[in-house]
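Re: the 300-residue chain
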Amino acid sequence: MVDLAKLQDILGTLTIKANEPLSNYTYTKTGGPADLLVFPRSVEQVQRVLAAVKQENLPLTVLGNASNLIVKDGGIRGLVMILTDMQELVLEGNQLKAASGVALIEASRQAAAAGLTGLEFACGIPGSIGGAIYMNAGAYGGEVKDVISQVQTMTRDGQLKTYAGADCDFSYRHSRFQEGDEVILGVTFDLAPGDQSAIDSKVAELTHLRQSKQPLEYPSCGSVFKRPEGYFAGKLIQDAGLQGYQVGGAQVSTKHAGFIVNVDHATATDYLEVIEHIRLVVWARTGVFMEPEVRIIGED
């Protein structure tokens, strides 16, 4: 049994929420409760959280915007740390420094407003900076790895570390941080001065593409599957006749087959059953293995 008073003493002014439904924070509007939930606002508060979970021997789960994520209906044991209150965003010359909780869309917007090119591709990606680094987020031919100069992290022992972009082992939807347990604190993007009208035109074009092709009117976890080599995930699902396939309140979008949308109070279990059905049908039809891009965590 966790001694909440003792934990609160270590965390200082940081508020602890107990038995908090994570459906309040995920983009799918699904997910069971976190035993304990905190929202640090600073590097010092992250350090306190890491000290607390170590001292109390608590499991720790670190989340960002929870946009490309499914939390199972049983929720998450231990302590969940959501970093979306870490909001520092600073422009220094051609560099944009962003804390892990900043929305990638906002970083893209600030870069464009400053006449800097390089982050236009990210103008519609709903994740946080931390999640974007963790997943090497990308869209429309760009990936965050292309413009990352440095990534700042903290080890579970509370030590600060800095990685050059080249040392982050970035590849398609992958980074070195998926194999470790460091907490991503922020990033430095290396951008370049660009033509303002060209930047604005690119952002407008990509925004239009996203709004016209993606089912933004419903909660979803974004793109569900990685792109299989030589194929497009959405087309494989569409060609298998699965658009509109529904379990409970989770439905394969009729607008874009690569998305599963929450059309009627879906549960995480509904989502997982739809994902498994897609994988089985596409495999039986084509022999193509569909690997989820969405991160699936928590307990049944």
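The CA atoms of residues 23 and 233 lie 26 Å apart.
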